[in-house]
From TrEMBL:
Cofactor or coenzyme needed: Mo-bis(molybdopterin guanine dinucleotide); [4Fe-4S] cluster
Single GO MF descriptor: 4 iron, 4 sulfur cluster binding
Keyword DNA damage: no
Naturally occurring in which organism (per UniProt): Pseudomonas frederiksbergensis
Name of this chain's protein: CbbBc protein
Domain of life, source organism: Bacteria
């Protein structure tokens, strides 16, 4: 048992001493891994053909990550983990009525996440029968009617939660938000709340737009690229190529990550035979800094402090300016406040909090100052902290000082996760929608749009826990496993009168059901989507704001599966009738949905024509052209102060000192809560996931031995015990005082109340923990005091 609420069938092999991975990222290892996935798949040949049709050649958009490719290259790009995602979705195995007749929900709860998804695609709508504790078949019409009945009988529309995961297409997302707003609420918790929310909030305040300001081509023109808190070798493999090209060209690639991630060190291109035959591999970085968890803001402030010092020296010696004064004068506000805050931040605090030496900070600052055009990329290592918003604003501050926003080869690049998470926001999946968007909806559809902010993920969990929300509908994703404080999230879902999961594969959220519950099987990106007017394309938006079409290629496993837009239309029609639009007419031909998008969302004029272009079209970005959508019309320096203490006061209030600060992260063999396998090749882990990466000296300091099992307990002042049991301690190359473990296994340790200021994102990269002797193994050893 790894956690209190779930039994994990993961085999626990005997501890083998940790052996680091010697190969480059990508390369033979990746090909072997893909080949294994294909050979063990029952659909191998078809999948191979399909894989070659991904992306910009009339095929489907890769359901992996949101990284974009150059629209001009025309080359089919794929990566190991994209191949895994496709293969996983395109299985022939099915989870049908016979499967559910065989397995009760309680027996399924005993299975691991890996086992649940491995059973195959969901192929028919199912409804929960409490008497037999089983899911049994239900017709689509009866399922829609049940949802309509529950929604209509709620005293207030705000008592329903409408979750979205970032794979939903633009068409599905637009229809969903239109339905939910016509129903009367802005309760749109979505995966973005746990992901890049802080980037959106921070950037909107700093530069007036919540999206990245660079496009793919900018990477070719940058002379320095900083990669903060991101593991592209696993999570955005196609990004390694531009990084390697940059190094080859002599640009600086600076990685800031406490772990030495393999992909950031070396990379072999899996499509370059010569490199692979010679086993040659190229470095992907020119410098690597390993800060304390949450220490990035201090490092950034330190870099800014060096710049300010050099700027003052330059002014006294007539040397060239370090700052871009023209840009500062013409385009920015509050720079003096910011410089004052830099002066007020002490070197002692910077060094202490960053976990780096003054020399390292100076080196990082020099690399930044040397770059004429600098790109800064970041991901979850930056966004899942309490002070993520100020940290990202510090990235923006540093970039503004040298005018690194709004010119070729330079800019801000939050690297998105899910393949269409950015598009979903553009389409209005937003619990705090901007007024201009609501106005446009109101004008176009003539109904009174709800104006009050709705619930984000954490607020939705609280509302369901307190009984304020009664219905949960999930458009994809795995809410029960992706969210923090797992036992409470389970309770929240179980409290509901109705839970509805629109999904491709079985997962734990289907087992955390309300009094009544539905599983609605939908088509995925790879499936051919046939509606009454013919085969349909959907559209998605990547991290660089490129919008393009995606066409499924595979015959769906069952006629009973429906597309996301058609399921939403069914629910909407059963709840609202044919108002404010004729839902079923709309989904007969998705071009009709795109017409509505064109009418109401800026940048989508002539949408249907524009997607005829195979590379899609660029949505544009105001900050990129130095137009600042802020109240003052300028880019804003944000004079945030460094946190006085990174450890939360509610942890301090317990009087217990943390043994370690832990981050939760992804292995190489997973896609979020989808577990493809139990290995983490680049980190040298095989056949296990219940592991805690810790520095050997820390293991010994805490009275354990490498390879021994321990319970992990997190520290928070609400009297709840948060514990996961029997994690193997791996002696690992990780900075002292830190630990790392896999998500979602450690989600029970993240307190629901521990969230980012201004972002409400669970602090999944900063969890104060203690280790205790394992409570459920024979290996209990006394702990030294
Ligand atoms: N194959 C695959 N691809 C994916 C996903 C997947 O699960 N599998 N998930 C998708 C999604 S939704 C997302 S959001 C992205 C996630 O992509 P990433 O953000 O790369 O995902 P994580 O595994 O959470 O990695 C976080 C990285 O940040 C580092 N880190 C942790 N804390 C800190 C810190 O305080 N400071 C710094 N500087 N670094 C820190 C960790 O060591 C790790 O290398 O990937 C997307 N792509
Ligand atoms: N501790 C910790 N927690 C985290 C994170 C972390 O780093 N640490 N990361 C957070 C992040 S960045 C994110 S984005 C969230 C992810 O949260 P989610 O997006 O909710 O989770 P996923 O695991 O991506 O969802 C997987 C499920 O989606 C369904 N699915 C797959 N494809 C489709 C499709 O095309 N359509 C539909 N309708 N369903 C589909 C399948 O049934 C599958 O089981 O987790 C967050 N949680
Ligand atoms: Mo994400």
């Amino acid at each position: 048992m790894s956690t209190d609420h779930q039994a994990d069938q993961t085999p626990t092999p005997r501890y083998k001493p940790y052996k680091p991975y010697k190969g480059a990222a990508g390369g033979w290892g990746a090909l072997i891994s893909v080949a294994q996935a294909w050979l063990t798949s029952d659909n191998a040949l078809k999948n191979l053909r399909m894989m070659l049709k991904t992306n910009q050649n009339g095929g489907f958009d890769c359901p992996g990550c949101a990284w974009g490719d150059s629209p001009e290259s025309g080359m089919v790009k794929f990566c190991e983990n994209g191949a895994k995602a496709v293969n996983w979705e395109a299985t022939k195995r099915r989870v049908d009525a016979a499967f559910f007749a065989k397995h009760s929900v309680s027996s399924l709860l005993e299975q691991s996440d890996y086992w649940l998804e491995y059973q195959g695609r969901l192929t028919e709508p199912m409804s929960y029968d409490a008497e037999t504790d089983r899911y049994t078949p239900i017709s689509w019409e009866a399922a829609f009617a049940l949802i309509g009945k529950h929604l209509q009988s709620l005293p207030s529309p705000d008592q329903a939660e409408f979750y979205t995961s970032g794979r939903a297409s633009n068409e599905a997302a637009y229809l969903y938000q239109l339905f939910v707003r016509a129903f009367g609420t802005n309760n749109f918790p979505d995966c973005s709340n746990m992901c890049h929310e802080a980037s959106g909030v921070a950037m909107a305040q700093s530069v007036g737009v919540g999206k990245g300001t660079v496009t793919f081509d900018d990477f070719e023109h940058a002379d320095a690229i900083f990669v903060w808190g991101q593991n592209p070798g696993t999570n955005h493999p196609r990004m390694l190529e531009p990084l390697r090209e940059a190094v080859k060209r002599g640009a600086q690639v600076v990685c800031i990550n406490p772990l030495k991630e393999r992909g950031l060190e070396r990379f072999q291109h899996p499509q370059n035979p010569l490199e692979m035959l010679t086993n040659g591999n190229k470095p992907t970085n020119t410098a690597y800094f390993r800060p304390a968890l949450g220490g990035d803001m201090a490092l950034l402030r330190g870099m800014a402090k060096f710049l300010l010092q050099w700027e003052r020296e330059a002014q006294q010696t007539d040397a060239p300016s370090v700052f871009d004064h023209d840009f500062l004068n013409e385009h920015t506000a509050s720079v003096l406040d910011y410089l004052g805050t830099i002066d007020d931040t002490s070197w002692e605090q910077i060094v202490e909090q960053s976990g780096l030496t003054l020399e390292e900070i100076e080196q990082a600052a020099r690399m930044y100052a040397k770059g004429k055009n600098v790109i800064m990329c970041w991901a979850m290592g930056i966004t899942q902290h309490r002070h993520s918003v100020p940290t990202i604003q510090e990235i923006a501050n540093l970039m503004l000082l040298r005018g690194n926003i709004g010119r070729p080869g330079a800019g801000l690049c939050p690297v998105r996760g899910h393949s269409n998470v950015q598009g979903d926001r553009t389409m209005g999946i937003n619990e705090r929608p901007p007024a201009f968007f609501l106005d446009a909806l109101e004008r176009r559809f003539q109904f009174k749009v709800p104006r009050e902010n709705g619930h984000n993920v954490v607020e939705a969990i609280h509302a369901m826990l307190d009984g304020r929300s009664k219905v949960f509908i999930g458009l994809g994703g795995n809410f029960a496993q992706a969210t923090p404080d797992s036992p409470r999230t389970f309770q929240a879902l179980s409290n509901c009168d109705l839970t509805v999961q629109i999904s491709t594969k079985l997962n734990r959220s289907h087992l955390a059901h309300g009094k009544e519950a539905l599983i609605l099987p939908c088509l995925g990106r790879t499936d051919i989507d046939l509606q009454t007017e013919g085969t349909q394309a959907v559209t998605v938006e990547d991290s660089f704001s490129m919008v393009h079409a995606s066409n499924g290629q595979l015959q769906p496993l069952s006629k009973q599966m429906r597309s996301e837009p058609s399921i939403i239309a069914g629910i909407a029609a059963a709840t609202l009738g044919a108002t404010p639009v004729d839902w079923n007419w709309l989904v007969a031909d998705y071009r009709r949905i795109r017409e509505l998008i064109a009418d109401t969302i800026p940048g989508f004029k002539d949408f249907n024509q524009k997607i005829e272009n195979p590379g899609g079209f660029y949505l544009g970005n105001s900050a990129r052209t130095r137009r600042w959508n802020t109240p003052s019309g300028r880019a804003h320096f944000r004079a945030n102060i460094l946190p006085a203490d990174l450890v939360h006061e509610r942890t301090r209030a317990t009087g217990q000192l943390p043994d370690l600060i832990m981050q939760s992260m992804r292995s190489h063999d997973q896609y979020n809560t989808t577990i493809y396998g139990l290995d983490d090749r680049y980190r040298g882990v095989k056949g296990q996931r219940d592991v805690l990466f810790v520095n050997e000296a820390d293991i010994i300091r805490l009275g354990f031995k490498p390879g021994q099992k321990a319970d992990i307990v997190s520290i928070w002042d609400d009297g709840r015990e948060r514990r996961v049991k029997g994690f193997t301690l791996l002696a690992f190359d990780i900075p002292a005082g830190q630990a790392a473990a896999y998500y979602p296994e450690v989600n029970p340790l993240v307190p629901l109340e521990s969230t980012g200021d201004g972002s409400h994102t669970p602090t999944s990269k900063f969890i104060a923990i203690r280790l205790e002797a394992a409570s459920e193994t024979g290996l209990i050893m006394a702990r030294s005091a």
